[in-house]
Amino acid sequence: QRPLLPPPSRDHYRDLNDHAYDIFEKSKCEENRGRTLLSRLQSMVSKTFSHTVKLHLFGSSANGMSLKGGDIDICMLIDDSFGDTDIVIEKLATMLKQNHFTKVLAIPSARVPIVKFKDQVHNLSCDICINNKLAIYNTRLVEDYSCIDDRMRPLVYVVKRWAKRRKINEPFTGTLSSYAYINMVISFLQSREPPVLPCLQQLAFGATSINGKVYGDNLADVTVDGYNCKYYNDLHNLTGFGKHNKETLGELVFAFFEYYARRFNYVTDVVSIRTGHTLPKTSKTWESINKKSHYYFSIEDPFEITHNLARVVKRSHLTMIISEFNRAYKILSRNGNLHIVCREFIHD
Length: 348
Ligand code: CTP
Ligand code: MG
Fold this sequence. Notes:
By secondary structure, the protein is α+β, with helices and mostly antiparallel strands. Helices cover 40% and strands 14% of the residues. The protein has a five-stranded mixed sheet with strand order 1-2-5-4-3, sandwiched between helices. A three-stranded mixed sheet has the order 11-10-12. The two termini are 30 Å apart. Bound molecules: cytidine-5'-triphosphate and magnesium ion.
């Protein structure tokens, strides 16, 4: 383990905190982003398929953490009587073209089959997938976490902004999805002493007492596509959970980069918000393509626990991601300048 760097000075910490809130204020968008498009699409879908077929927002436009210009993620819930997914996808694509959406592209062979398109009028890019119920549930889990402590949302914005500008938020080329970064943020916040966030899934299994308060009273199991999605969601009972932790947003930003630049062990450990602590890689079996079950970086999906959210990350890309964590960590240690940390990456 490489030695830790000194934290920013008091003045630099103040700048860092200001920059973090600044990025948050400038990046967030209006709450109802995507809702108008959703209801327009819903009425087309009702006509084309049936009134029983429903559309749901998920991802950042549903959990309230989308960046300006970000994509809209929609999931269509439909039963088998309408035919195989590829037939449904083609029918959707035709429907979208007829309704003057542009850049309509059906990708029926993806792990999660989707149709991509653009709404030129509102300048929105959108994806519709079929029956991805787990995504609806994990979006709700993320949203519930973000309601427990006010520092999570701005921290997620800072991390997303940094990862996009540094070009390490491109799962299609071998780096991480925003959802993977959000898991890294939640795991980090669960690991603080005292914790900023609880572990909602552990709280749902048996009575647990934290700070003298008892949680988790035999909640009913919620099975979605074969996975247990139950978690403790009585948020009323959890307001103020993080108040024993007095760290500022600026301090958390620094500690986040320190955690993934120096403390987390990529070789041996797995990020797991389901358990609230890291797991040894040796304890996991992953659903794997090509019989390959060893991955350079492992992030366990909270519900679909055999799914590694970092499975696309190869050795060279992990090196790139870690060196970006180091770059950010060094700059923050030196002068707390988060604006420099989030500067656009330029290929030479
Ligand atoms: N998702 C998933 N498994 C993945 C990637 C994504 O289940 N491996 C689902 C999650 O429900 C996630 C949603 O897809 O909330 C959208 O993922 P992503 O676009 O990565 O995250 P966003 O929060 O939408 O971020 P962005 O604003 O960058 O689009
Ligand atoms: Mg998205």
